[in-house]
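Format is sequence with structure; example below:
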Amino acid sequence: MIGILNQICKGNNVVISDEFTGYDKLENSKYIHLKVDHTKMFVDGDIHTNTVESFWTIAKRAIYGIYHHVLVKYLQQYINEFSSRYNNRNITESFDIVLRNSIC
């Protein structure tokens, strides 16, 4: 997990997780690790996992509802599509964005 974070993250980053013990490896890393213990609470100020849990819920529902199943070979492409949809979900001019991005 640390290797993947090192490839993706630049600089000092904050990683927020739940109480899953697999994340304990982050304690001795260069990352600031904040966690919320869901057995006690779901939000501690700005520390929560609600956003990422919401994203994965939407992505899973989209896979089941649109594609019904995916091949692991193409999984990153599906996630990229859902990431773009999620990041632009509040933008009403989506056609303008697609057009602008296709020209640049």
The CA atoms of residues 5 and 31 lie 9 Å apart. The mean pLDDT is 84. DSSP finds four helices and four strands in the chain.
